[in-house]
Amino acid sequence: MCCGILCATPYGRALQQARKVANRPHPAEKEMRAPERKQAPSEDFGKLWLQMGGVIKQNRGFLPGPAGVAGLRKICGPGKISPALLKINDFGKLTERNCSWAYVGGALGVLQKLPRGGEFPILFAKPRPGVQQIKVLMADGKVKLVDARRISSCSGVVNALRRSSVNAKHPIWKKLSTAASQIDKASR
């Protein structure tokens, strides 16, 4: 299933791969009985990437800004990302303080202009005490795990990703860091 111009990019190919992965049952599910069947977190992120592809297509290759809750409101809704997938019940009462997600994707701009191997974060769960790892949805459709034991802020997550990136010196990291800092300030 082709999604137009987007399919000609690395992000489009990652979107097509995510569609295949999201529709494949988790290996452990074959051994589980129906009442015990649970959705694997990686499947949630696969579905999230599929729905993010729809948002990217609607916005002609852009991820809508700004960062944080304001950006989440733009990427969630009918024909976009399902708020239920992010476990958001009421957008009317959603603030940075009570939102468990950090959306920094709006800082990326046009996805097709990102360098190959564009390991740049779009969305991740905010760090909180007791969490060992944070799953991060990347602009190339992959999910990256960040060791969260020594990270207490969204800026810390972005900096950890930057340090491990092959594109660590790309100027987009400054925009991502600024977006994460704004989320941190508003979350206090």
Provide a brief overview of the structure.
The chain has 188 residues and is of the alpha+beta class.
Main beta sheet: 4 strands, antiparallel
Strand arrangement across the biggest beta sheet:
1-2-3-4
Give the overall silhouette: globular
Distance between the termini: 43 Å
Give the integer mean of the pLDDT values: 80
DSSP helix fraction: 25-40%
Topology readout:
Blueprint: H1 10-23, H2 41-58, H3 69-75, E1 101-103, E2 121-125, E3 133-138, E4 143-147, H4 154-164, H5 172-187
Antiparallel strand pairs: 1-2, 2-3, 3-4
Describe the structure.
The chain has five helices and four strands. By secondary structure, the chain is α+β, with helices and mostly antiparallel strands. A four-stranded antiparallel sheet has the order 1-2-3-4, with helices on both faces. A hairpin with a 7-residue loop joins strand 2 and strand 3. Helix 4 packs antiparallel against helix 5. The longest helix is centred in the N-terminal third of the chain and has 18 residues. The radius of gyration is 16 Å and the shape is globular. About 9% of the residues have low confidence.
Characteristic key phrases:
single chain, 188 residues, alpha+beta, four-stranded antiparallel sheet, 10% strand, globular
